[in-house]
Amino acid sequence: MNTFIHADLDAFYASVEQLDHPEYAGKPVIVGGQPGDRRSVVSTASYEARKFGVHSAMPLAQAVKLCPQGIYLRGNMERYQEFSRQIMGILGDFSPEVQQLSVDEAFLNITGTEKLFGPPETLAAKVKAAVRKKTGLTVSVGIASNKYIAKIASGMSKPDGLFRIPPGAEETFMRSLPAGKIWGAGEKTQEIFREHGIRTGEDIYRLSRDSLSAIFGRAFGDFLYRAVRGEGVETFETERGSRSMSTERTFPYDLYDSFTIESVLLDISESLLWRLLGEGRHARTVQVKIRYGDFSTALIQESFSNPVDSLNDLYTRVLALFRKKYQSGRGLRLIGAGLMNLEDGPRQQDLFDAGAEKERKLEKAIMDINRRFPNAVLRRSRSRLSD
Predict the structure, then answer these.
(1) What is the pTM of this model?
(2) Contacts of 219 (CB under 8 A, 6+ apart)
(3) Residues 17, 82, 105, 270: which is the catalytic one?
(4) In CA terms, which of 101, 161, 241, 249 is 20 to 30 Å from 12?
(5) Tens digit of each residue's pLDDT (9 = 90 or more) over 150-196
């Protein structure tokens, strides 16, 4: 039987800011923008800010109303990527198979590592200790026989948690969960749970597959039927070796607002671009992933003649693909984007692309300044990007 760890950094962006700025320790830190930034959304909120109801993907204006005393920062993606690369390297010391899901989370396949590192709990404790010692950050870890349950387990005792579901206990664990802890069941689904008196995984377990499909639709009904039986129901796409990179955002509620959706796509595009530049690669293929409130998922991918050359360029491509695929009016549970078929080495200089070259130089300068002076926290303004 396989054994997986899900390693999830605790309030990552905000924790990095608190680490770099000790005066922020113990205070509500919200990364995503400054009060007055009309179209900004919260990227990460510290645990102190979450006590006020602030969470990721929330419009910044709403966060300011809930937590006016918060410390609001636009963030420093290059700094976060620097920590992310270091942490992924640490994880690689414990497993030959590390699947990075985003800048702040990854799966480790630790099957067969007992002789090197001891039983799973011992290995997980070593992972946590190594991350804290080398970076000063905390990571919550979940251990299970499949990735879906490992992901739930990592959130069971946050922050700085360690939680294991023993082999054979997957179904018992899922049936005992409060309905609100079932990963993938967002705010709208929770309302339906309440309407039908569903409070726990056990309540879902007692319903037939047909009954669940009638209530939630076939895709999500089937998902719930299998999830409460302890199956590895979620598909986490693997970045094939070093040939692709991707990131995604899962929301605690179905997202409808176009400004918020497009701001999240910008945040994702920025994260991907910093990572691409940091690794010195280029890519011509862009992919967008959309998951709706009923758990149906759509993918769209396109290869272009020219490589991605700036944030403006990447965001324009991501936004165009999203608009081509998105079914208007449907609530979104997850949005993701990726760069596929990565190529190493410097990109060839295109003819007649003076404007694009300016964009590249500007973003390279921003990255260099942020690397040398972390407090500068420069970033591109959405108002200056193409729509």
Answers:
(1) 0.75
(2) 294, 295, 296
(3) 105
(4) 241
(5) 999 999 999 999 999 999 999 999 999 999 888 877 777 888 999 99
170 catalytically annotated: no
Distance CA 276, CA 295 (A): 30
Q: How far apart are CA 15 and CA 250, in angstroms?
A: 20
Superfamily of domain 245-378: DNA polymerase, Y-family, little finger domain (3.30.1490.100)
Give pLDDT tens digits for 4-25: 999 999 999 999 999 999 999 9
- Please provide the distance, in angstroms rounded to a whole number, between the alpha carbons at the two ends of the chain: 48
CATH of span 1-159: 3.30.70.270
Query: Residues 193, 249, 100, 94: what is their CA dihedral angle, to the nearest 10 degrees?
Result: -50
